[in-house]
């Protein structure tokens, strides 16, 4: 009733292969975009930006990046934290070396730099797969964090060993540093997220996406029918690295402002993003959004319920939070191993027929 | 024979497309294929038969570049083929299906068929990222070809279905569609009728004959069902324990004493 595709006919292959083939979906997507770009910036405040929206936007970019690698190309990676650190440090170096260039360029360059690093650490994937590849990427995680800790050039020889984002503006509006207004940082991240999601969707519905999925589903058969495994795997690492690098750069410059590498980009970050991808749904762009939203919102919701509604002491709530998040993840994986995206698909199937299921 | 021959049913067979010259393939001490030579001619349906473990699938794997033989040469279009990776072989116009279905289970039927056309898709990463220009034009053009194949094999109704949900017989047909989408010069079918009932076998036989007839595709197939092999194929190679024991038209092979011995066994007295 609410959700129908009857009468929604396609007359060309362009129409059939568009991102949202069903009209209802398309309008809902436009509505979400309109709210995100035209409504939220006017009602946003510092709490919403810093506790929910900014982490959601930035983690969503990282989750899309990792989903391309793990969900679409089937190459397991535990190096996400390290690759985000590459994005952050590249962004920092570009910001301090070329202060006159726009922040947009810095973030994109940071993405490009991470793509290169990611390809280098992706080279073992040509020989090994599965758990062994996961261990190889784990090496990337530890090596990169060690590198940024030990080589002073990366943090410009600062005494604390931290990097902190200098104040930068875009079109006269501050977007980094303590004086940046909430809506500006939000808009800056939102623009990148929108672009990343569009690019990811375009890549995954086309030629390169098919060769990634072919490698994921059956690598030997894929090679025999004409997929170049070297090209497919390394482009997956490059594209994934590009997105993860962008998210790392935003995480450092726009969200945190100052970063200590082991703390911000440690192994826990790798697992967090991997959980987002798994809970959201492997091989789904929507799933990346859903997973990021779930893991960003869950602690906030638990805190609100525990502290504000039930009136429990903060430290107890903080401990319970860990237990509950862990338990929920396990429940989730048992009930719906294909993630939130699959729940969403099932709901859509049901809604198509509602209220007359037969 | 150099310029081809006319089959019993009047089809004209052309020159040699692929020639296997003294192929020997060993895995450690095991000799899978021993000094085998045969040719495949343009437009013909060439069967490879033999008991289990005779080395038939290994032979197809040699043709598609997955195994590299220790001795011998593969000649393609009158030239010895240099050693190349399987995907390069595919780009030369050799497509195949597999004994145990090797479809991409997580993708829709349409995406599987489109994957078969990868060698024709040349647009760059940047163009694809924006879904503009060459990438979009290429997608539509190749979609048209893919749809023709889908039409031809009568799988329009499952176009958007994920492959994992399909029954076995349809999966086999989708796999054929994926191979055909490459518009191959040589199509290799590894047991296209394994595990099918009589009706499905009839359907599949009809498709194989139609493919050969309509697109003029050269086909090499492995099959265990002798009735099917004798009806479909123009010439048959018989293998046993890695050796070639017979080669010729179905009638010649049927009356070949070595072949009868291999299949029925030789009495001890």
UniProtKB/TrEMBL annotation, chain A:
Places the protein is found: Cell membrane
Record has Chloroplast as a keyword: no
Membrane topology value: Multi-pass membrane protein
A GO CC term assigned to this protein in UniProt: plasma membrane
UniProt keyword Secreted present: no
GO molecular function, one term: branched-chain amino acid transmembrane transporter activity
Membrane-spanning parts: 27-44, 50-69, 76-95, 101-123, 130-148, 183-200, 236-259, 271-296, 316-335
Top-level division of the source organism's lineage: Bacteria
Alphabetical keyword list: Cell membrane, Membrane, Transmembrane, Transmembrane helix
Protein name: Branched-chain amino acid ABC transporter permease
Lineage summary: Bacteria, Pseudomonadati, Pseudomonadota, Alphaproteobacteria, Rhodobacterales
From TrEMBL, chain B:
A GO molecular function held by the record: ATP binding
Pfam hit, one: ABC_tran
Highest taxon in the source lineage: Bacteria
Keyword terms, alphabetized: ATP-binding, Nucleotide-binding, Transport
GO cellular component: plasma membrane
Protein known as: ATP-binding cassette domain-containing protein
Residues covered by the ABC transporter domain: 18-266
Cited InterPro entries: AAA+_ATPase (IPR003593), ABC_AA/LPS_Transport (IPR051120), ABC_transporter-like_ATP-bd (IPR003439), BCA_ABC_TP_C (IPR032823), P-loop_NTPase (IPR027417)
């Amino acid at each position: 009733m609410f959700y129908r595709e009857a009468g929604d006919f396609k007359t060309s292959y362009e129409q059939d292969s568009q991102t949202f083939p069903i009209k209802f979906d398309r309008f809902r997507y436009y509505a979400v975009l309109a709210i995100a770009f035209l409504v939220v910036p006017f009602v946003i405040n510092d709490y919403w930006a810093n506790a929910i929206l900014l982490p959601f936007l930035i983690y969503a970019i990282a989750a899309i990046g990792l989903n391309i690698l793990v969900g679409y190309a089937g190459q397991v990676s535990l190096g996400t934290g390290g690759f985000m650190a590459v994005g952050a440090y590249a962004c920092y170096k570009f910001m301090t070396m070329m202060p006159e260039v726009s922040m947009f360029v810095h973030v994109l360059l940071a993405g490009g730099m991470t793509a290169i690093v990611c390809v280098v650490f992706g080279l073992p994937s040509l020989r090994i797969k599965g758990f062994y590849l996961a261990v190889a990427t784990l090496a990337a995680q530890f090596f990169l964090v060690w590198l940024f800790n030990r080589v002073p050039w990366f943090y410009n020889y600062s005494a604390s060993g931290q990097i902190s984002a200098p104040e930068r503006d875009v079109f006269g509006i501050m977007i980094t540093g303590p004086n940046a207004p909430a809506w500006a940082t939000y808009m800056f991240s939102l623009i990148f997220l929108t672009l990343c999601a569009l690019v990811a969707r375009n890549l995954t519905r086309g030629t390169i996406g098919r060769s990634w999925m072919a490698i994921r589903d059956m690598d030997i058969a894929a090679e025999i029918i004409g997929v170049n495994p070297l090209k497919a795997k390394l482009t997956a690492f490059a594209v994934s690295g590009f997105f993860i690098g962008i998210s790392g750069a935003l995480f450092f410059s726009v969200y945190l402002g100052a970063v200590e590498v082991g703390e911000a980009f440690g192994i826990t970050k790798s697992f967090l993003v991997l959980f987002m991808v798994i809970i959201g749904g492997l091989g789904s762009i929507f799933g990346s959004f859903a997973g990021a939203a779930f893991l960003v919102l869950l602690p906030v919701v638990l805190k609100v319920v525990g502290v504000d509604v039930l009136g429990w002491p903060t430290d107890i709530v903080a401990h319970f939070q860990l237990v509950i998040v862990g338990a929920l993840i396990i429940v989730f994986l048992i009930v719906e191993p294909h993630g939130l995206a699959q729940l969403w698909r099932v709901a859509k199937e049901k809604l198509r027929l509602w209220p007359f299921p037969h | 024979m150099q310029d081809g021959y006319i089959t019993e049913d009047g089809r004209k067979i052309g020159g040699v497309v692929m020639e296997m010259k003294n192929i020997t393939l060993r895995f450690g001490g095991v000799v899978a294929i021993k000094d085998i030579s045969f040719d495949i001619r343009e437009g013909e349906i060439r069967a490879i038969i033999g008991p289990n473990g005779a080395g038939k699938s290994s032979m197809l794997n040699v043709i598609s570049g997955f195994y590299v033989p220790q001795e011998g040469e593969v000649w393609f279009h009158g030239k010895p083929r240099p050693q190349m990776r399987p995907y390069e072989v595919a780009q030369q116009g050799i497509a195949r299906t597999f004994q145990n279905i090797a479809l991409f289970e997580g993708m829709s039927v349409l995406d599987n068929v489109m994957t078969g056309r990868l060698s024709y898709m040349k647009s760059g990463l940047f163009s694809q990222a924006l879904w503009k220009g060459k990438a979009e034009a290429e997608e539509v053009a190749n979609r048209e070809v893919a749809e023709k194949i889908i039409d031809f094999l009568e799988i329009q109704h499952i176009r958007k279905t994920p492959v994992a949900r399909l029954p076995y017989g349809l999966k086999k047909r989708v796999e054929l569609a994926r191979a055909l989408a490459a518009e191959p010069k040589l199509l290799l079918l590894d047991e296209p009728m394994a595990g099918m009932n009589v009706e499905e076998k009839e359907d599949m036989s009809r498709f194989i004959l139609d493919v050969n007839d309509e697109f003029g595709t050269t086909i090499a197939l492995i099959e265990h069902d002798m009735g099917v092999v004798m009806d479909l194929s123009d010439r048959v190679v018989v293998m046993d324990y890695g050796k070639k024991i017979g080669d010729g038209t179905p009638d010649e092979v049927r009356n070949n004493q070595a072949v009868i011995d291999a299949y029925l066994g030789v009495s001890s007295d």
